[in-house]
Design goal:
Structural class: alpha+beta
Strand order of the largest sheet: 1-2-7-6
Number of strands: 7
Radius of gyration: 19 Å
CATH topology of the domain at 30-76 and 83-129: Immunoglobulin-like
Distance between the termini: 32 Å
């Protein structure tokens, strides 16, 4: 909501810059993982929910200035002749792309997978970490 509000006035949004996939495209992609994007003084971190997958089902790559997350949820086939079952779980391939912001140390990007959550750490360069905050004083 805030991204759309700020974007309407021409202010760039860090989160929209990182997440290149348009909202309308994500709504049609049943298997696209939900992500959280967090920034601190030293790094950005992308956490993607991937329940039911393992690290072997996920591929993280860097293509130019774009981080690409791909994977596939595979459907196990079970045939029952007498009973009909309802399956609401989604299966299929997914892909998310994220534009790297300035100041990311590309050689130190790392990914870990634990309990259904993929965490990708994008460390900032020392120059990006040295940005100075300017205090705003009341008059």
């Amino acid at each position: 909501m805030f991204d759309r509000f700020a974007g309407g006035f021409g202010f760039p949004s860090l989160w929209r810059a990182l997440d290149m996939e348009p909202d309308w495209e994500r709504s049609f992609s049943f298997a696209a993982p939900a992500v959280d994007i967090v920034e601190d003084d030293k790094a950005y971190r992308i956490d993607a929910e991937l329940p039911g997958l393992s690290e072997k089902d996920v591929d993280v790559s860097l293509s130019g200035d774009t981080l690409v997350l791909k994977g596939e949820r595979r459907q196990e086939h079970e045939e029952k002749r007498k009973n009909h079952y309802l399956s609401e779980r989604s299966y299929g391939a997914f892909q998310r792309s994220f534009a790297l912001p300035e100041g990311v140390d590309r050689d130190k990007i790392a990914a870990t997978f634990s309990k259904g959550v993929l965490s990708i750490t994008l460390p900032k360069t020392s120059q990006a970490q040295q940005q100075k905050k300017i205090e705003v004083k009341a008059t």
